[in-house]
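Action item from last week, closing it out:
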Amino acid sequence: MMAMREARTDTRNPVPQPRRPSEPVNGETLLADLVRVGSDERAAGRLRARIVQMYRPVVAREALRYRNRGVDSEELLQVGSLAMMKAIQGFDPSRGSRFVSYLLPMVSGEIKRHFRDTQWAVHVPRNWRDQRGALIRFVADFVHEHAREPTQSEIGAHFDLDPSETGAFINATSAYSAASLDTPRGTDEEGNEVPLASTIGSRDPDVESVVDRELLRDALSRLSQRERRAVVLSYFGELSQTTIAGYLGCSQMQVSRIIRAALDRMHAEFTDEE
């Protein structure tokens, strides 16, 4: 009798009572139970598993809002699931608010942070990455109001940037994604797909000889008509001196002397300019 009396009067460490089958079970009640079990990891693990199972469809719907933006749907769901675990840990059921109101902003924020930190094609300063959304909204609002896209100076004025910063800002915020060089950009005359890589120019091997060609053209212009014709036929036409002699109406020996004299004069001019 005394033992039963002590059991009835001992309220220092009340043991959580199992929920009656008739009581409704929702996320808030399960989260309240999670707080009550305290350090009982086995009970806490079971409760967390039930909460995760209950809200997984909610997280999946929120994560799929961000699909088709360069990130696999399964990866988005994983990020959303991690956000749900953080929400379960941080939610305070004593405030009386609904868990879903706390969960959705947490999931959305984690997914946006994932895009911001891991999905940019090139490194961009964080403050410019954060303003990408603001730029998109400004351009959309401007087009709606003015029926045209804003100029670079108008964008700079809106974001308080000088002209050089504005150009860098616009280029940086467009660097979120990069197209593959294998992406088709159209078709050729035969109907075959042409990859984006075909539009990338290659190094022109003649670039380094531009200055020399201009100097040569100038030097040739200073020769007499006969000398210039002999040099051009010899070095550009690759004709023999005998054939050149037929064009100039002189002997092969005279052609040799004409070319030699022309080359010496051109060499002297190049030497003087250097």
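Closing note: The first helix runs from residue 2 to 9.
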